[in-house]
Amino acid sequence: MMLMLYRNVLLLAITIAMVSCLPLVAQENFAPPPTSNPGSAVNKTSLLESRSKDDSLTFAEVLEQYNQNEIAITRLFSSSPIGFPKRQIEHMAKIDLLKEKNRQLKSQLDEAALLSFQQSANPSPRVCQTVFNIISKKIDLSRSGSNFDPESALEVAKLMLTKIDQGSELSATLRQEDIAYQGFLAANATENYSDAEVMLKRIEDQKVALRSAIRNEFNDSVSKWNREQEIRQREADSNDLPRVTFETSEGEIIVELFENEAPKTVGNFIHLVENKFYDQMNFFLVLPGRLAQTGCKNDRGTGDAGYKIPCETEGDNIRHHFSGTLSMANSGVDTGGSQFFISYQRNKNFDGKKTVFGRVISGMDAVRRLNRITGTGSLTMNPGKQGNYSKILTATVSRKRDHDYLPTKITEKN
């Protein structure tokens, strides 16, 4: 149990160490409920709105088909014709067809397991484990993060805990505190701090000793989030912050810029947008659940606009990293320029190190659709999009205050 509670802390440290090795990359995560942050709202059908049993295969039926295909694939591999190239090609085509069918069946297993879980008073251990794995796949960044969907993960966690409250014995291998901890991570990743608090309480009610850092970091995030909400309300009342619209390959993203707290960074950013610097720019680093980064012309994390600008990371008025936050990438103090990233969830380790200068107010669903790209730009993970960068097609300033916006350059290349 304690290994499970420590795992995400360790993964965060590994991620930051990895991203820190890149010349100008950022380093980490977050996403909120529609009422508190409209930029994170995603229009989609709930995972729990499953089809009726008459419309879909049962979990056992899907699993049986999958296992039969696996057996057939093994047999085909062991009986491959030797010395007959044409027959070998036909043989491998049969194997590829079965593998494709199993990829499709695997995607159906989650839906079938959820349906079975909802309809059964005491679901089978295999069904319970499959449903629990749905939560893990949607929030566990060690699984590549390509299925990152904390809202759906929270739904499933709540469903499982409701079953327990109704007296169901889910599985000898599944404990309430494990489910609640996954639910806590999911709620935390959407800034749904009320549900996150409920999940923590359930863990503590099971007499599980949480590391003090988990509770302390949670309380700190809640405090900063409450402050952020107060600032956003004042900004909504004044309604005059600059805005930029990105038309991207994955949809429209609208951002609002924090000129009050980061005027130099915003001045540089608007200057670059108006000079079409970001048009046709790739998102060269996309780590779902962590961050999406762009602003580098060579897609290696070393490019800039030809100069550096000062950081704005000190003082009591700095903003903090939440889901949808825009922040300047840098390789140290005063080394930012044109590269910026969007956080998928709370990134406390960047606070005071990277300049927060805006947030997504519309289109967080498009941000989540950005094609996964590693730090080298050599590997993509989204099915059907191998080798493709998501990109900014055009960037346009849609609103600004009545003054010039120019960069404050501290170093410039000849």
Q: What does this molecule look like?
A:
The structure is a single chain. The chain has two domains: about 30-215, no CATH class; about 245-410, Cyclophilin (Beta Barrel). Helices cover about 40% and strands about 15% of the residues. The protein has helices spanning about 1-20, 60-80, 85-120, 125-140, 150-165, 175-190, 195-205, 210-240, 265-275, 365-370; strands at about 245-250, 250-255, 280-285, 290-295, 305-310, 325-330, 340-345, 355-360, 390-400, 410. β1 (about 245-250) and β2 (about 250-255) form a beta hairpin. α2 packs antiparallel against α3 and α4 packs antiparallel against α5 (about 150-165). Residues about 1-25, about 25-45, about 50-55 and about 375-385 have low confidence and may be disordered.
Spatial strand sequence of the major β-sheet = 1-2-8-6-7-4-3-9
Structural class: alpha+beta
- Helical fraction equals 40-55%
Q: H/E order of the elements?
A: HHHHHHHHEEHEEEEEEHEE
Mean pLDDT: 84
Distance between the termini: 57 Å
**Based on DSSP secondary structure assignment, what is the total number of beta strands?**
10
Indicate the low-confidence ranges by residue numbers: 1-23, 25-43, 50-55, 377-386
Count of helical regions: 10
Share of residues in strands: 5-15%
List the domain count as a whole number: 2
What's the main sheet like?
A: 8 strands, antiparallel, barrel
Backbone shape? globular
Rounded to the nearest angstrom, the radius of gyration is: 24 Å
